[in-house]
Amino acid sequence: MTRLLLTLAACLFGLAAPLSAQGEIARAEFLPGWRQADGSHVAGLLITLQPGWKTYWRAPGEAGIPPRFDWAGSRNVRALRPVWPTPQVMDQNGMTSIGYPGDVVIPFEIRPENTSGDVRLEARMELGVCKDICVPASLSFAGTLGRGGERDPRIVAALVDQPLQASEARVGKVTCDVRPVKGGIRLEARIAMPPAGGREFVVVESANPSLWVAEARSTRRGGDLTATTELAHVTGAPFALDRSGLRFTVLGSSHAVDIRGCAAR
What would the pLDDT profile of 222-254 be if each residue is shown by its tens digit? Predict the structure, then answer.
């Protein structure tokens, strides 16, 4: 828990005033996309940054600021899911962050309540952008999505730029050893998989948003990749860990891999 407090202090130190979508550092452009044969709609958000600035992935690492969306005011939306392109591992003042060093397109998969009607999206995104300092930005965007539309090559490219699924990367058995430690639990995940290239970095996420997950330490021995981390409840309360809700993203120099869940060792 001490490490968590130090990380939060590092992120908050030197924060400037929030930016709007019209600010000079970050801008948002809504990409209306197209309606698919099954009635779902694919749209996107282009985030444009000034040179040298970066922003963060859904799990931003120990030095990042997690992005947040508020879809209040949207209409005819049954479900909506952001599809995050493969991020990069970045160094930030000696700490690790996960994100995008420059412009990025974030696609959205939208399921309308009424597939024959238009979808109205009204959104506000809170995100962090960093260069020499970290700045909280607020980007507002909106659009009406009709039943037509054309495939946008920018969205298509971002959809293609996804981590491989476990089966595509020939991932074998994934097991987790869980042991209690002061303030939380220690997790050691062993993943049987071919190398993803270079120095592999494993991001561990929990389906429980109340759990803090420390940066994992990753080591490889032959055909096994091991990731070791600690988890704690943000309130310090005891908790049970659902292994099926764990998500492991392996980031390598050749490709990335998305792995869901693990079995008890």
Answer: 999 999 999 999 999 999 999 999 999 999 999
So what's the pLDDT on residue 133?
84
208 bridge partner residues: none
Task: Assess contact for 32 and 118: CB atoms under 8 A.
Answer: no
Does the pTM exceed 0.70? yes
Give the residue among 240, 262, 258 at the shortest CA–CA distance from 248: 258
* CATH class of the region 164-264: mainly beta
State the pLDDT at residue 94.
78
Residue 244 burial (CB < 10 Å; 0-12/13-18/19+)? exposed
Beta-carbon contacts of 170 under 8 Å, excluding residues fewer than 6 positions away, are: 193, 194
How far is Cα 200 from Cα 58, in angstroms, rounded to an integer? 19
Burial of 239: CB neighbours in 10 Å, binned 0-12, 13-18, 19+: middle
CA distance 1 to 98: 21
